[in-house]
Design goal:
One of its GO terms (biological process) is proteolysis. Keywords: Aminopeptidase, Hydrolase, Metal-binding, Metalloprotease, Protease, Zinc. GO terms for molecular function: aminopeptidase activity; metal ion binding; metallopeptidase activity. Its cofactor is Zn(2+). Belongs to the peptidase M18 family. The chain is an alpha/beta fold. It is built from 8 helices and 16 strands. Strands 1-2-3-13-4-14 form a 6-stranded mixed β-sheet, with helices on both faces. A 3-stranded antiparallel β-sheet has the order 5-6-9. The two termini are about 35 Å apart.
């Protein structure tokens, strides 16, 4: 690991540890951008942008778009964009989480994305995400969004003992409906430590049954600093409490979850910040430098804040219209733009060499990977890959190729 690379690694690991969910990743990104002089704008308001200035906006608190307008930018000029995503496969809490079986309190979860679900067994788990809070103000009430993360491990998905499943080593297929239910506590201990306040009226589910264990709500309320009855709703997920670390015998690896795609989220964000850090950074820039970190890539990108939404086009249109009134300029701008979709590539696994075609085996320390697919699973073509390689060569960055088969 070179000196320049090693200098950024602590910041990257800190970003990983600050981002257990897409909401937290966006919150941390906002902090980094503000520290770098970026101003937040809202899609609900008019934009009064200036050439030479730096801005960002968010959608749903889980997607963020940051951009820097060149001092020589005029409407119709192109955008230089790097796109990545903030979400990762995980176990998300169901709308009704209360499960009680076999003398245990459990938390109902559902799978999100294409995860390796067997890896979630026997881990020290906690929960994180966002919570909607009701706050009483005299005769009225207001509602706010709060990020929450319980630091200590509070639940676990235990593996069945081999004595009860002698054939497990011959092949284990996870039943995501029955096997992946974390254990929160035993019923008897929970009853002995029952919170003084039971669930509020907002916690009544179908046919009058409570939706969540009072114990779970109490822990969330304690972390946020509110009463359990003030919690109106939430979007939470299970998280591994083991921190991301630099590891390996020679300290060359980052052991962490969520590398897909917090790695590219961090790298693209840092690149934008570093490229706009000095007073003169944008003096000769004729275009707009942009980074877009989208939510919901793992499930198809088709949400209101996913890459398949109008979010990107809306941003390009609004920026262009701030500097020119001709509606045709946005089409010219798009044709003059260049976008890199930055995601993780799977390096060659020494235990599964047969999984990569002989001529396309991305290796660690081999450099950036350009992904190809004849069936257009990737947008790479001869022109875009050539431009990418030329830029990399100019900056002495090694490049390797990978193709995705038709399967």
């Amino acid at each position: 690991m070179g000196k320049e690379a090693s200098s950024v690694v602590p910041d990257f690991v800190a970003f990983l540890n600050a981002s257990p969910t897409a909401f937290h990743a966006v919150d941390e990104s906002k902090r980094l951008l503000r520290d770098a002089g970026y101003e937040q704008v809202s899609e609900r308001e008019d934009w009064n942008l200036e050439a030479g200035k730096k801005y960002f906006f968010t959608r749903n608190h889980s997607t963020i778009v940051a951009f820097a307008v060149g001092k020589k930018y005029v409407a119709g000029n192109g955008f230089h964009i790097v796109g990545a995503h903030t979400d990762s496969p995980c176990l998300k809490l169901k709308p009704v989480t209360k499960v009680s079986k076999g003398g245990c309190l459990q938390v109902g979860v559902q799978t999100y994305g294409g995860g390796l679900w067997h890896t979630w067994f026997d881990r020290d788990l906690t929960i994180a995400g966002r919570v909607m809070i009701r706050e009483e103000n005299d005769d009225s009430a207001s509602y706010s969004h709060r990020l929450v993360r319980l630091e200590e491990p509070i639940m676990r998905i235990p593996t069945l003992a081999i004595h009860l499943d002698r054939g497990v080593n011959d092949g284990f297929k996870v039943n995501t409906q029955t096997h992946l239910i974390p254990v929160l506590a035993t019923s008897i201990t929970a009853e002995m430590n029952k919170p003084a306040a039971e669930n509020g009226p907002e916690d009544v589910g179908i046919v009058g049954k409570p939706k969540h264990h009072p114990l779970l709500l109490q822990m969330l309320a304690n972390q946020i600093g509110c009463a359990p009855g003030e919690i109106c709703d939430f979007e939470l997920q299970a998280c591994d409490t083991q921190p991301s670390v630099v590891a390996g015998a020679l300290k060359e690896f980052v052991f962490s979850g969520r590398l897909d795609n917090l790695c590219m989220s961090f790298c693209s964000l840092k690149a934008l910040i570093d490229a706009t850090s000095s007073e003169s950074s944008l003096d000769d820039e004729t275009g707009v430098r942009m980074v877009a970190l989208f939510d919901h890539e793992e499930v198809g990108s088709n949400s209101a804040q996913g890459a398949g939404s109008p979010a990107m086009f809306d941003a390009l249109s609004r920026i262009t219209s701030c500097f020119g009134s001709d509606p045709n300029l946005i089409q010219k701008a798009i044709q003059r733009s260049f976008l890199v979709s930055a995601d993780m590539a799977h390096a060659l696994h020494p235990n599964y060499m047969e999984k990569h075609e002989e001529n396309h085996q991305p290796k660690m320390h081999g450099g950036l990977v350009i992904k190809h697919n004849a069936n257009q699973r990737y947008a790479t073509n001869a022109v875009t890959s050539f431009v990418f390689r030329e830029i990399a060569q100019k900056h002495d960055l090694p490049i390797q190729a990978r193709f995705r088969s038709a399967q």
